[in-house]
Recover the amino acids of this structure.
């Protein structure tokens, strides 16, 4: 049997480790977009974590046992939906009955359902997140205190037990939510940085790193097959004059407009990139040399009709033979 401090520390370790494992399992998904599969996983994992915390219960100085099963339940309500919450609640209630059918099992049902209503109400009505969490845990602990007082009728309320439970739940709940937010923000930052590693942040096109990878892949594919591949290189004439005359904000608008036109005018399988500055490229798959020239000429006319003479695009086509003779591009 663990002492209070050992038990509380162990419960925190289990909570934090479980949150890291959870993030690893669903790292490709977002809290905002939850599929049925992820929803069910959330509910099952919430119930599993509650069961683990019930197993590693905390011994108090009053020779009584408490656990932090309510914290995983709160997390599922905060970050999940009604289905995942229902699954977690059902698991907590079922597991408690498996541990023994008696008055405490029935009281557990009341405690879970009352906490469910409290958490949902506070989550919707209180805008400040941390105040909402503190109010949630305070009201849930109040329910626990009332139920404990009812069970202890005639024996006297165990103040030490109640105080220990309040401290454990509030501290554990705040730490768990902080860790969950931290892990979620880290996941979002990682996804954003991963995207920008291969995407031009201004135009949303592939960047030079993506172009290099696609170019080398196309070269390797060309050496093994007879598939036609061409590249269009686009460069905006007098772009420096646009920046010097109208400012960089206007220059950025020109770049974004060119990128939008390229996205609309090219086939879905074509790889469009901003190679740096005012230079763009389009890797044309399954496109012969003559077809590439036709596309380039059509694109040039579109650009001429949309921009002043200072921003007319010059387009150069690289043939298949020239691709074969080009050395590997280094990242």
């Amino acid at each position: 049997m663990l002492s209070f401090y050992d038990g509380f520390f162990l419960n925190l370790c289990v909570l934090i480790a479980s949150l890291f494992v959870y993030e690893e399992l669903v790292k490709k998904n977002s809290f905002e977009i939850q599929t049925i599969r992820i929803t069910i996983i959330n509910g099952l994992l919430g119930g599993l974590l509650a069961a683990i915390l019930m197993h590693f219960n905390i011994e108090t100085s009053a020779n009584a046992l408490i656990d932090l099963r309510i914290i995983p339940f709160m997390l599922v309500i905060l970050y999940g939906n009604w289905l995942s919450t229902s699954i977690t609640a059902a698991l907590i209630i079922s597991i408690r009955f498996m541990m023994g059918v008696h008055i405490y099992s029935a009281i557990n049902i009341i405690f879970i359902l009352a906490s469910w209503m409290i958490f949902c109400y506070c989550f919707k009505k209180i805008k400040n997140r941390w105040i909402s969490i503190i109010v949630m845990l305070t009201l849930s602990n109040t329910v626990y205190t009332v139920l404990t007082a009812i069970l202890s009728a005639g024996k006297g309320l165990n103040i030490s037990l109640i105080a220990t439970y309040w401290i454990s739940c509030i501290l554990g709940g705040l730490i768990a939510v902080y860790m969950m937010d931290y892990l979620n923000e880290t996941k979002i930052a990682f996804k954003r940085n991963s995207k920008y590693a291969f995407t031009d942040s201004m135009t949303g096109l592939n960047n030079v790193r993506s172009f290099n990878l696609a170019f080398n892949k196309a070269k390797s594919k060309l050496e093994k097959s007879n598939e036609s591949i061409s590249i269009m290189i686009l460069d905006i004439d007098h772009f420096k004059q646009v920046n010097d005359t109208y400012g960089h904000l206007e220059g950025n608008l020109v770049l974004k407009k060119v990128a939008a036109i390229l996205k609309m005018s090219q086939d879905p399988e074509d790889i469009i990139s901003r190679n740096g500055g005012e230079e763009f490229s389009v890797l044309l798959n399954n496109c012969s040399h003559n077809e590439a020239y036709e596309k380039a000429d059509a694109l040039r006319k579109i650009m001429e009709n949309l921009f002043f003479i200072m921003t007319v695009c010059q387009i150069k086509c690289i043939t298949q033979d020239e691709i074969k003779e080009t050395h590997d591009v280094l990242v």
The chain has two domains: 4-197, 208-325. The longest strand covers residues 229-236.
